[in-house]
Design a protein that fits this description.
By secondary structure, the chain is an alpha+beta fold. Among the domains are: about 5-20 and about 165-310, Pseudouridine synthase; about 45-125, TruD, catalytic domain (Pseudouridine synthase, 2-Layer Sandwich), CATH 3.30.2350. The chain is about 30% helix and about 25% strand. The chain is built from 9 helices and 16 strands. The protein has helices spanning about 5-15, 65-75, 150-165, 180-190, 195-220, 250-255, 275-285, 290-300, 335-340, and strands at about 30, 35-40, 50-60, 85, 95-100, 115, 115-125, 135-145, 165, 235, 240-245, 260-265, 305, 310, 315-320, 325-330. The strands form 3 sheets. Strands 1, 2, 3, 4, 5, 6, 7, 8, 15 and 16 form a 10-stranded mixed β-sheet that branches. Strands 11-10-12-13 form a 4-stranded antiparallel β-sheet. Strand 6 (about 115) and strand 7 (about 115-125) form a beta hairpin.
Length: about 350
């Protein structure tokens, strides 16, 4: 199976087009872990059940999977039994939630700490925490050495808050320097997949993210990433649901304007596709990825949708000398880096982001 198309796909995955013009300048991100503070927002409370312990943990300089393994050892369970809603970067100060089967008394978890992490709270809960089972994440980011004029920064941030940014999958979804795309290429060329479930999931995720970014890049180039096209599958803001629309009327346009709904792009798999103009644009792009579509459908993945537009909530900034501090919240599955890239150029942030 030919994979010649992957070279263009790699460019779209790693350097997709901007929606608001060139970045204003360069800046350094994550000079220290404290420059990248993220707080996970579950959107629900512990239910008091007895099956699991829900742990609120602050970590610094540790990745999520490493902390999960340590919690498993302390709890006397397998690492696969530890639940968490999303991956958080190692070089950051992150507060996130985990669940561990309740093999030990709740009191045993109070104040537990290890290298680079500590337990802030331990609560009774009935269910394992699943990937993506969160409302979103709140960020406080400090960018160092930015040289853009204060007025230009304020103006650009105003545009981002008012219009949003393209909801690309961040380059970290594709691995350092696009390493996960090499695994996608091997899968398309020879059907080769990692043996472990986690490894296969990374390949599937990178493949679907690749196609989504390509569709979104086309919509950015055509100026329709932030408006509804006829035949669109429309996402309800803050919810993992969507509905089909045949025609675009004033009511839909008004809802788009107040960020109540968003156009969507494909998470390729088995299932329905849009119709009308939206479907035509999507089909034109995805036809270039027929090999991936076939592989993903054969793997049994059901088609999904993802909003094309991402609107940072509560966006505020403080500029002190060359240091810019940003505060905002994002829904689950989105990336702070795709907000930052519409403002400044910076070095990649490996691993940052939340799972869908």
């Amino acid at each position: 199976m030919s994979t010649a198309w992957l070279e263009d796909a790699r460019a779209l995955a790693l350097v997709p087009p901007w929606a608001h013009g060139e970045p204003l300048g360069e800046a350094e991100i994550k000079v220290t872990p404290e420059d990248f503070v993220v707080v996970e927002q579950l959107g629900f409370e512990a239910d008091g059940g007895t099956g699991h312990v829900l742990l609120k943990i602050c970590k610094r300089g540790r990745d999520t999977l490493a902390v999960a393994r340590e919690l498993a050892r302390f709890g006397g369970v397998f690492a696969r039994d530890v639940g968490f809603a999303g991956l958080k970067d190692r070089k950051a100060v992150a507060t996130q939630w985990f669940t561990v089967p309740a093999r030990r008394p709740l009191a045993d978890w109070q104040g537990v700490e290890g290298e680079g992490y500590r337990v802030l709270a331990a609560l009774s809960h009935s269910r394992k925490l699943r990937r993506g089972a969160l409302k979103g994440n709140a960020f406080q980011l400090t960018l160092r050495g930015i040289e853009a004029p204060a007025m230009a920064i304020a103006t650009r941030l105003g545009v981002l808050a008012a219009e949003g940014v393209p909801n690309y999958f961040g380059m970290q979804r594709f691995g350092r320097d696009g390493a996960n795309l090499a695994a996608v290429e091997r899968w398309c060329a020879a059907g080769e997949l990692p043996h472990g479930r986690e490894g296969r999931a990374f390949v599937y995720s990178a493949a679907r993210s690749l196609v989504f970014n390509a569709v979104l890049a086309r919509r950015v180039a055509g100026g329709s990433w932030n408006r509804i096209l006829p035949g669109e599958f429309v996402n309800l803001d803050g919810r993992n649901s969507w509905f089909a629309t045949a025609a675009v009327d004033a009511g839909l346009e008004e809802r788009v304007g107040r960020h109540d709904i968003h156009p969507t792009g494909p998470l390729v798999g088995r299932g329905a596709t849009p119709s009308g103009e939206a479907g035509a644009v999507e089909a034109e792009v995805t036809s270039q990825y027929a090999a991936l579509r076939e592989r993903l459908a054969s793997a049994g993945l059901e088609a999904g949708r993802r909003a094309l537009r991402l609107v940072p909530a509560g966006l505020r900034h403080t500029l002190a000398g060359g240091d810019l501090t940003l505060e905002f919240s994002l829904p689950a599955g989105s990336y702070a880096t795709v907000v930052l890239r519409e403002l400044v150029r910076s070095e990649p942030i490996p691993g940052e982001g939340a799972d869908d």
